[in-house]
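Sequence in, structure out. First:
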Amino acid sequence: MTLHLPPGSPVADLPWIITIGALDDEEEWEPLVCGPYERPHALALAQAVVADEELMAVVEPLLPLADADAIRAEVALAKSGAGHDATTDDLTAETFDRDEPRRTTPGRPPTRAEVRAGFARIAAKLTSADQ
């Protein structure tokens, strides 16, 4: 599952994580959380992993919050039920499991080199003075 973003959403530029878990609640193992990735890489990797497995993948943005006050503010916002910003009102869920049709076309899984280049771009964003 992931968020369907409206065109131009600033959320798309955030780092994204993938949580891989069991499709069946009866399986007992801890979900795997991996990332951060750029959104297209996260979508393609999630799709590639669950394509032939009885797994579910959740792809979601990672908020680069730099201090406890910022985290508390986001927790309060989440508890209030308000969206992260004006664009989140247009978000819808998409399911990525092997029994559901894919409504997003993330493309082929990225190569190791492409993912590492994405890591470098994410690191540059997270450490820029503009943040």
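Second:
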Amino acid sequence: MFTHHPARQGLRIGVATLLLAAALAGCASQGRRADAVTTGSVTPGGESTVASMSARELEAATASLGKLYSRNPQDRGTALRYANILQMSGRVDQSLAVMRKLAIAYPEDREVLAAYGKALAAAGELEPALDAVRRAQTPEYPDWRLLSAEGAILDQLGEPEQARALYRRALDLQPDEPSVLSNLGMSYVLTGDLKKAEEHMRQAAAVPGADSRVRQNLALVVGLQGRFAEAEKIARRELSPAQAEANVAYLRAMLAQGDSWAQIAREDGGA
């Protein structure tokens, strides 16, 4: 169990968006049961496409969607896409405001509830986020993305055992899913077990189709163990120069918190 520590809380919130982005990404197939939970992508081309945009492309897309949203704030598809791209741009409070309004307009819509939960978690409102994601789930047709999202929130709330049980349930439904394996790895990062974290991260990165965020997580774990050259090599792998620089900048920013991570690991080791 985590003890409260300002550095730990900041790191939890910082990791929340990363975990939930992977947990709720991906498009539902057309052949899926109509009554099953549909978490669906909230951007054309998927979240991974948005994640690979340059800063200029992200700014242009945000402005374009903002104009569409202002014309009709209750258009479900536009609002979902706009909230997502605001979040990817770091405008977390604005994204949450969009999703809060949409959740009021569509209180029973599971995809809206799932996206609302993600926005709440990104803003650090973890208890309401947990409630929203749980309400989006359907027990008779459990959705692996929502199980993984619930686990990500529980990790931020300092409940790693409950979180890992949910990740394993998600993996039962979607074996070898890289986003879930990556979340499981990040769960061990948060408790200071970097070797176990790296094991799951490498498994995730080895799965065909694993996206840039999975490699970012692996690079982070390798870097936190002091293998900086290897970490930077991983962060640059299979990406355009612009995307690679963005990944390396992310990695350096996270590693700049190294003293905080090390302090947390020492506290957990002595608990």
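Remark: The two ends are 9 Å apart (CA to CA).
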